[in-house]
Structures are given as C-alpha cells and as structure tokens.
Predict the 3D structure of the following.
Amino acid sequence: MCFKGSNVQGLQTVATFDPITDEFIINTPNDGAIKWWIGNAAVHGKFASVFAKLMLPAHDAKGVSDMGVHAFIVPIRDLKTHQALPGIEIHDCGHKVGLNGVDNGALRFTSVRIPRDNLLNRFGDVSPDGKYTSSLPTINKRFAATLGELVGGRVALASSSTSVLKIANAIAIRYSLLRQQFGPPKQPEVSILDYQSQQHKLMPMLASTYAFHFATSYLVEIYSQMKTTHVEQLVGDVHTLSAGLKACVTSYTAKSLSVCREACGGHGYAAVNRFGILRNDHDIFQTFEGDNTVLLQQVAHLILSCPCLKTLNANS
C-alpha cells in the first residue's frame, strides 16, 4: 500500500528523526494532510509505504532541517490482532462507483515511531547521529529519483486501460456483425456493421486500439530496460511517455466505453454485456496514479524543457 498524494512535493506529513531513540516520528499535522483513497488501507493492509518530509535536527536557530520527501515503511496494524497500532487512525472510504473489491481507506499518524532502518534509503540515508548522506546533490534531484520509482503504476494503468478498450471493441463489433436491421425490400436484413454510421463509430476506435496496443507494448519494453539498466535518458523517456500515454489511453477508453455501449443499442445496457461494469471499474483509471490533466501538464513542461527545443528556439 502506497501513501502519497498528487502534490507529493507539498506533502505536510513529516518524519522527524530522534537521535536519542534512533527512530523517526511520523506526524500528520491536520485534517487537510490526511491521505485518502489508499488501496487496502481500510480493512486488510498491515504496512504502508509512507511519503513524508524528512526532518533532521539542526545545529542552528532553525531547529530542524527539511531534507525533502522520502519514503518510509510504517506498520499500521498488529500482525496478531489486526487492530490499528497506537497513533494510527484508519478510515474507510465506503462504497464506491466501482472497484469495490479494493478496500480504499485513509490514514492519519500521531507521533508514530518507527526504527531508523524503516527509511527506504536508496536515494538518501540518515546515520545514528542524525547526519544525512546522498549520492544526489539536491532535494529536487532526490525527489525526481524517488518519484521515478513510481512510474510502474502509470505503465500498468496504460496497459490495463488498453485491455479494457480491446474488450469493449470486441463486444461492440461482434454484436454489430450479428445484429441485423433493415435492408432492401423483400431481402434479408443486413448486419448493422454494414452501415456507415456504425462503421464511423467503431472502425476508427478499432484502429486506435491497435495503435494503443503497440504504444503501450513499447512503453512496457523500455520500462523493463530502464529497471534493468537505470540509464538516465531512459528514466526521463519512461517518465514522459508513461504520463502521456496513461492520460491519453484512459481518457480515450472512458469515452469509448460509452460509444461502444450506444453502438449495441438496448442490449448494450444489459448488465450481462459488461459495459456497465467495465465503465464503472475503469472510470477511476483517469484519476489513479495522477489526475490526467495534471499528467498532461507534466508532459507539456517536460517537452518545453527539452534541450533540443531550447536550441531550436535559440537558433530561430
């Protein structure tokens, strides 16, 4: 279970290091800082990966030093009794439009202590005496590296959304081939897929499905290469492509589900034909792993920041 929000860099939850006990103290300062919609939090989760600002004791008037957002492993339930641990406040998000097999919840921390070793320290570490070390020189670089590990969720959503689009296409096109309506006088009725209006609905969608299939397959391929090689250029490419594809595929699929349902007429409204379930379960894909509008803004920013574009503008 992962505990973060859309504005990760602006998180208010803090992890303050206590060198006396060699522990971090996790605190959620106010109701507005509570993270909602955490998968498996409400009922089943026993541990959480919590994103919080790492605060270290400072030897100056500031009192503490903000080292930026880091990830921590935090136990949230007793392994034997399954009860919430002291300082852990758990809320259930309740019944949802879809995906009710996932028990989404909210977490709040009040002076929750965890061992220093529970810091996920690939990009930054804290010694027992409170000294910070990192191979990355700035907070922004550490932040980018930490979030770079999360692109797998966007890759998975783009691929899963494409699979939903394939299912919807298959249902609508097969129905349109079998469903007959109207035709020449005294002749057998013709398949509704022979009508241009039906073709204009479904055939461009089918072509887009093929395009998204190959695009997401390529994304999965370079994501696998990135995880193996950690090449900096690949990290940037995967971040941009996963954000853009996740936004485009999920938005397109959400609209296409309604088109496919309408293309099947009244039969498309029957629960047995799955459009309602697909539409309800898929709809949240547009919000999972980053709101689509925010993701497209990220892509635009990354494109405008491209060195090649800057060179082009300088020469023009």
Notes: The domain at 13-136 is CATH 2.40.110.10 (Butyryl-CoA Dehydrogenase, subunit A; domain 2). The first helix runs from residue 139 to 148.
